[in-house]
Design goal:
There is one protein chain. The chain is α+β, with helices and mostly antiparallel strands. It is 33% helix and 36% strand. The chain has 3 helices and 4 strands, in the order βαββααβ. Strands 2-3-1-4 form a 4-stranded antiparallel β-sheet, covered by helices on one side. The longest helix is centred in the N-terminal third of the chain and has 17 residues, at 14-30. It is globular and about 40 Å long. It starts with a strand and ends in a 7-residue tail after the last strand.
């Protein structure tokens, strides 16, 4: 089952993101079979990371919530908001 995870950083928390980035990347690598696509959301000028987005392939909403909760960024209090929504891939077909 696919879910979109959309996380927005708290303002002025770039230092929290930077300090926890290695642990976050290790976490993502450890769940590579569940992460369909993911990466940082960027500021309009492309110069800074302001959030995270991922599409997860997990058994159910509880698994998506656990994934989001256990991310080192979330544990460090980086996010102002986290939205989790079911998703259906339509394009590209196949």
């Amino acid at each position: 089952m696919l879910f979109v995870l959309y996380c927005v950083d708290k303002p002025d928390h770039g230092h929290v993101r930077a300090a926890n980035r290695p642990a976050h990347l290790d976490y993502i690598r450890g769940h590579a079979e569940q992460v369909v696509i993911g990466g940082p959301m960027l500021s309009e000028d492309g110069g800074g990371m302001i959030g995270s987005m991922a599409v997860l392939d997990v058994p159910d909403r509880a698994a998506a919530e656990a994934f989001a909760r256990d991310d080192p960024y979330a544990r460090a209090g980086l996010f102002e908001s986290v939205i989790i929504r079911r998703y259906r891939k339509v394009f590209p077909e196949g």
